[in-house]
Amino acid sequence: MRHFYKTKLSIAVIAICAFLPSCSDRADKISPEANVALECEGVMPQPETLPGAASYVYKTASGRGLRLHVFTPDAPSSDVIQTRPAILFFFGGGFRKGRVSVFSERAKAFTKLGYVTALADYRVKCRDGSRLPDSLADAQSAFEWLREHAPELNIDPQNIVLSGGSAGGYLALATGMLAGSDEKPAALVLFNPVVDLVSRAKPLQKIPVRAISPNVLSKKHLPPTIIFHGVDDQIVPIHNIRAFCEQAIDKQRICETHEYIGQGHAFFHNHEIDPNLNISVYEDTHVKSVAFLQRQLHFHK
């Protein structure tokens, strides 16, 4: 195993949590214990299996097994088994909650196109008492596990894509940016990702947070990236995304953005036809994701 990118992560583990709205406490109004109970109300354990997927424990942490749920395309009609590209999805939830199954529909859609797809569980505050660096360490471990087990899953290790929404978009992005030069994902497909941790950090947290904040990290080796974002997103302002991609393009990296007017955070799950855009944002983001990956991976079923 290679762990050199975890050096930067270890620097950032110095007591950072409260730089995201979903992770900030409200101790000025209620007790910390009551606050945790309030924000974690209704958060259930993650399932150990998902219908149609093979489930693997990629890591044990905080007293439980963290699982990858892997969907595999139908076997080819010929006897020749070809390696396939893969997509690893990370759910959102502000690093405190979230369901591992939230990207199941997208995963299955890509599986029909010939991709091996995987949904990663990772530690979050309400289940594990964890903080953002723990979530990031888990995302890196999940990506590492998928690369190491690529042969038995018939995955091309050079064609693994990372994807996620919101906090999960951050995990996909940061994992890709912190990976070694010979371990980079082939591409990133991101939905309203958190890109700026620094502006939300408390004063004493700003220096350690810089080690894992995508807007500060070098864009020199950013994998080809596509970002889908709602213009009216109040949690991750659109200007953060525009600035991030401008920095990447200045470094001659591919950073493609698609903005959706009138859409807020987590808009991409909506199947209904938007009367102003005259599209289903779910279908539109899926079609554009497929086209982008066909250009970057040169893969066709």
Note the main sheet. Answer: 8 strands, mixed
Radius of gyration: 19 Å
- CATH overall fold name: Rossmann fold
- Please tell me the CATH architecture by its name: 3-Layer(aba) Sandwich
Shape: globular
* Structural classification: alpha/beta
Gap between N and C termini, in Å?
Answer: 31 Å
Domains, number: 1
What is the N-to-C succession of helices and strands? HHEEEHEHHEHEHEHEEEH
Please, what is the average pLDDT?
88
Q: How many strand units? A: 10
CATH class: Alpha Beta
Number of helices: 9
Q: How big a fraction of the residues is strand?
A: 15-25%
Strand order of the largest sheet: 1-2-4-3-5-6-7-8
User: CATH superfamily name?
Assistant: Alpha/Beta hydrolase fold, catalytic domain
Query: Helix fraction?
Result: 25-40%
* Unreliable runs: 3-28
What does this structure look like?
It is a single chain. The protein has 301 residues and is an alpha/beta fold. It has a single domain, classed as Alpha/Beta hydrolase fold, catalytic domain (Rossmann fold), CATH 3.40.50.1820. It is 30% helix and 20% strand. It has nine helices and ten strands. It has helices spanning 6-12, 32-39, 104-112, 125-128, 132-148, 167-178, 206-209, 238-250, 281-297; strands at residues 54-61, 64-71, 84-90, 116-120, 155-165, 187-191, 225-230, 255-260, 273-274, 279-280. The chain has an eight-stranded mixed beta sheet, sandwiched between helices. Strands 9-10 form a two-stranded antiparallel ribbon. Helix 1 (6-12) packs antiparallel against helix 5 (132-148) and helix 5 packs across helix 6 (167-178). The longest helix has 17 residues, at 132-148. The chain is globular. Residues 3-28 have low confidence and may be disordered.
